[in-house]
Amino acid sequence: MNYNVNEKGYYGEFGGAYIPEMLYPNVEELRQNYLKIMAEESFQKEFRQLLKDYVGRPTPLYFAKRLSEKYNTKIYLKREDLCHTGAHKVNNTIGQILMAKRLGKTRIIAETGAGQHGVATATVCALMGLECIVFMGEIDIKRQAPNVARMKMLGAKVVPATSGSKTLKDATNEAIRDWINNPVDTHYIIGSVVGPHPYPDMVARFQSVVSEEIKIQLKEKEGRENPDFVVACVGGGSNAAGAYYHYLDKPEVGIIAVEAAGKGVNSGESAATSALGKVGIIHGSKTLLMQTADGQITEPYSISAGLDYPGVGPMHANLFASGRGEFISITDDDAMQAGLELSKLEGIIPAIETSHALAIFETRKFKKDDVVVVNLSGRGDKDLDTYIKYFNLN
Amino acid sequence: MNRIKNKLSENKKILSIYFTAGYPKLDDTVEILQQLEKDGVDMVEIGLPFSDPLADGPTIQQSSQAALKNGMTTELLFQQLKDIRETVSIPLIIMGYFNPMLQFGVENFCKKCAEVGIDGLILPDLPLAEYEEHYEEIFKKYNLINIFLITPQTSEERIRQIDNASEGFIYMVSSASVTGSSEGFGAEQEEYFKRIASMKLSNPLIVGFGINNSETFLQSTKSAKGAIIGSAFIKMLSEKGLGGISTFIKSIR
């Protein structure tokens, strides 16, 4: 079975481009050109050069000795937290800003949840001298204040989304509305593997550098390209898509996706889409979606702004529906403990999103010889305030 | 014959009104429809509210949220419309986003439409290709006309394609914007209206987005068959309630 996108833009039954006609010309222009542009030698050269010199790639694959000892298995951390701007998000924004330039666009819009994608977009806009507008839920603006300040310093305009739950979903709605209002000069840099085709595939390809590097690095360290398991947290799912990408069609590699259970999967305050969602349409994509019986999209909850999304990318919906991926959901509390544990055992303060992925070791047991790669998608600087309050660190 | 086609064959400009079902009050749907027919409106789009209306500006976002808060659901809308054809004879179209329809079941939704006397559907986020591949047969089975949109950015080739796939009319979005955000039509719109008119499409055009008074109604219907008023009507309902309908409609033409 093939777990990648097909020529119609679907992963199994998930994906497609369910967009209003107003967006059709832009999305179609992108669809017709993205693979061609990405294949151009000059594009690849510029993309690779920036990933190396500007982002700081390759990021290390680090053997977490003390963590491994504690859980009696071999845990490697793919250090995306060491990327410039503090998370994997910049891999995609570098790719998309180069794409936007080749499409002749001069104005960039983006949505952001935790603010990491907003910062990564503002960063590449500064780098390329393009106008940047970032939509961010009003609630997220409050809980991610340092990232808001960073975006402003980088010259971006941050526009609060005040509709609905005032989080990532609503920021995405506002970005799409802006694109409808500005169809000619604007490129929308979507931050995750969500949205209408070709976005999920394009973003996954830009993020696929993560598993491309894991293969080479694991070969050096373990003498084999394939780990037994690759683990990542999933909100929309871009860091996961990057970590899984080159392993999708390798059945010997177990794929583990970790979602945010919030206060508990059945608490009514959760973002565990695979457990709570049904097939539906959000932001132009057919995917698993948290919704009412009447098809209204429900408001998710997670302590981590980056996982606070009621859907998942269509690639992940298909990994879940086909059984290719193992889906685990982790509560706020367990994630916070795992974040603290990594800090103390390995000297790495992870983003709370990433802490969800690290929390699985308490319950999901692995064999002693298993090689488990966890994508350490982001660093915890932006979350210090939440950690401080939660653990009373003052 | 479908009521939409009948209406379009009349020798007059069409005034169509959009409102959100369940707003301002949950049970206003039938009374609004009856009043609109009495006041001489030619056709109505009944908006099925959705939590995340991507193509709509603040007015319709708010009316949709209020309607959902009031308790509007797909099932309830069909219940409200159960006897509508005893009192209302103008064409009725349901306009909504695709997800609520998908959850209700596309075939079940179409069947209910046919039972209560709905003539057509406008689903902005159901693209032409998906419709043709998966749903056209079902729509046809229940004699429902699916209305497609074009915008100032739609290519000539795509407009021809949409014209071929359409029956009834083409919904011509007046400008590059979400609903309710335009302030009058300038040279750019005039040019666009003329350009599309000169294409001699086989379907009539009805203009929507940004029509809010008699001036914009006249401008947009100079070359088009009719025009749709949505946000401006909803704004009026918010301010004056159902009692303001007659005055509003008379002010348009």
UniProtKB/TrEMBL annotation, chain A:
Enzyme class: lyase
Molecular function per GO: tryptophan synthase activity
CDD domains: Trp-synth_B
N6-(pyridoxal phosphate)lysine sites (modified residues): K89
Classification via Gene3D superfamilies: 3.40.50.1100
E.C. designation(s): 4.2.1.20
Cofactors (names): pyridoxal 5'-phosphate
InterPro entries: Trp_synth_b_CS, Trp_synth_beta, Trp_synth_beta/beta-like, TrpB-like_PALP, TrpB-like_PALP_sf
Catalysed reactions listed for this entry: (1S,2R)-1-C-(indol-3-yl)glycerol 3-phosphate + L-serine = D-glyceraldehyde 3-phosphate + L-tryptophan + H2O
GO cellular component: cytoplasm
Tryptophan synthase beta chain-like PALP domain mapped to chain residues: 56-378
Alphabetized Pfam families for the sequence: PALP
Pathway note: Amino-acid biosynthesis; L-tryptophan biosynthesis; L-tryptophan from chorismate: step 5/5
Keywords assigned: Amino-acid biosynthesis, Aromatic amino acid biosynthesis, Lyase, Pyridoxal phosphate, Tryptophan biosynthesis
SUPFAM superfamilies, per database record: Tryptophan synthase beta subunit-like PLP-dependent enzymes
NCBIfam families xref list: trpB
Function, as annotated: The beta subunit is responsible for the synthesis of L-tryptophan from indole and L-serine.
The family this protein is said to belong to: Belongs to the TrpB family.
Subunit structure, interactors included: Tetramer of two alpha and two beta chains.
Protein name: Tryptophan synthase beta chain
Species whose genome carries this gene: Aequorivita lipolytica
Automatic annotation (TrEMBL), chain B:
Keyword annotations: Amino-acid biosynthesis, Aromatic amino acid biosynthesis, Lyase, Tryptophan biosynthesis
Species: Aequorivita lipolytica
EC primary class: lyase
InterPro entries tied to this protein: Aldolase_TIM (IPR013785), RibuloseP-bd_barrel (IPR011060), Trp_synthase_alpha_AS (IPR018204), Trp_synthase_suA (IPR002028)
Record Pfam families: Trp_syntA
Entry function: The alpha subunit is responsible for the aldol cleavage of indoleglycerol phosphate to indole and glyceraldehyde 3-phosphate.
Catalytic activity line of the entry: (1S,2R)-1-C-(indol-3-yl)glycerol 3-phosphate + L-serine = D-glyceraldehyde 3-phosphate + L-tryptophan + H2O
Active site: E45 (proton acceptor), D56 (proton acceptor)
Family per record: Belongs to the TrpA family.
GO CC entries: cytosol
Pathway recorded for this protein: Amino-acid biosynthesis; L-tryptophan biosynthesis; L-tryptophan from chorismate: step 5/5
Ranges in coiled-coil conformation: none
UniProt KW Amino-acid biosynthesis keyword: yes
Lyase is among the record's keywords: yes
Secretion signal span: none
GO MF term (any one): tryptophan synthase activity
Protein name: Tryptophan synthase alpha chain
